[in-house]
Amino acid sequence: MNRRQLLVASAAAAVAHVVPAQLAGAAFTGLTGRPSESNRRFRSAVIERTIAEMRISLGSLELARIFENCFPNTLDTTVFPGTFQGKPDTYVITGDIDAMWLRDSAAQVWPYLSFANEDAALRNLLEGVIRRQARLIQIDSYANAFTRNTTDPPLKWAVHDRTDMHPGVAERKWEIDSLCYPVRLAHGFWKATGSQAPFDAHWTQAAKRIVATFREQQRLDNQGPYHFERSTPKPSDTLPLNGYGNPIRPVGLICSGFRPSDDACIYPFFAPANLFAALTLERIAEIATAIYGDQSFAEECLNFARQVRTAVGQQCIVHHATYGDIVAYEVDGYGNTLSMDDANAPGLLSLAYLELLRSDDPLYLRTRAFALSADNPYFFRGTAGEGIGGPHIGRDYIWPMSILMRALTSNSDTEIAQCLHTLCTTTAGTNYMHESFQKDNPGEYTRPWFAWANGLFGELLLKLRRERPQLLQEFRVRA
Question: Domain with 212 in it: what CATH number?
C-alpha cells in the first residue's frame, strides 16, 4: 500500500487514534449527517435559523444537505469554550487532529463573524479564540500548532523534532501565515462587532511579537533563531542545511520555513505569505492607532509593510511565456523562482479571497489563469473533476479547498456552477468536504473530518445567497 492508499483506507481509524474517545462519536455521526444535539459542542440559535433559511434559498437538495452538515461543523464538533482568568477562552481542534493550529482555528470560525452581534454566546466564543491565540503566540511565535494544555506532549510525529520546543507546542513548523490569520480574525471581529474586548495587554504583546518575528525572518544580518529538522523519508517534512532551509539573499522579504500545507518551502521567500504579512502589518497598525493610541508602533508597522510590498514587486513578479507577468510562488532573492500553486491558503488562487490582490487586478487574473491550468504542476483533471492539489498528499489528488477558492474568487455563474457540481459529486456520500480526493475516484479521499474545508463550503453558499441568489435557486446537480 502506498501512502495515499493507506491514508484512504485508514481514515476512520486515524480519527479514533488521534482524537480523544469522547470526540470520535461526534465525528463518525457526522459521516452521514450532523451529530445529534446532545453531541454538539456549541449551539447557536442564529446559526440554526440561518440553516433553516438556506433550505428555502437552495434549489438543490444536495446543496442543502451539505450546507446543513458543513456550515455548523466547527461549532458542532471542534470548539471547546471556557474561561481563562475570568475572560473567554476557546480551544479549537482541526477536526481529526486534537491540536489547535493558529491558521486553521482562525479560518474555521471566520464564517461566523457576521452573526456575532446576534448571539452573545457566539460573540464570546469568538473572543475566546482571539484571546487564546494571543497567548499561544507568546508561548512560541514560530509554532504552527498547540496542545490543549501546556502539560500535554507534542503530536506524536513531532516528539523527536530537532528544534527549540516549548511546553504547549504541538508542532513547530514556522509558517508566516500562522501569524497572519490570528490578526485577520481579530481585525475582522473588531470590524464586525465594534467590540474592543479582546484587545488587552496580551494582544498587543502578541502583535509586537509578530512584528519582531517577521523582522527576524527577514534575515538581514544572520539566519535568525529558527531551525527545524525531522527524521523522515519525506523531504517536505524537514528543512535542509542544518534546519535553516535553502539559502536566500536578503532583499526585504520574510522567510518562511513551511507553506500553509505544512510542507517545506523550496525557496524560503514564499510570495503569497509575504503579501499576507504586509496586509497583517497594516491591520496591526490600524488597531494600534484606533484602539491603543500607539502611533509610533503603527508607523513602524506601516513602514515595514511598505518595505515588504516593494520587495514583492521587485522580486516576486515573473514573466510567464503563456500568461505574461504573474506572481511567483516562491523566490530566493538570487533570481531563482518557483511557479506553481498549492491548494492551501494563502496561495496564488486565494490571493483575491484573502484581499491580498483585488479580484479584478490584471496581475491577479493572469496569476489565477496560470494556477488553474495544466501549466501549474499541481493542477489535476480527472473524470471526477478538476482542481489544485499539492505535494502534501501527492499527484492526482484534488483538494476541495481549491474548488471552493475557485468559486469564491469567480465572477462567472458558469464557473461557479461547475464548482458546485464537483463539490456535490465528490463527497463520496458523506455530505462533507474532505482534505482531498482522487481525481478519478472520489471514494478515495483523505481526512473525513476537516473543519476548515467544511467552513469554506458554508462561507461560499452564504456569499452566493447575498450576491447570486438566482444561481442557488436554479442550481441542480447534473445526472
Answer: 1.50.10.10
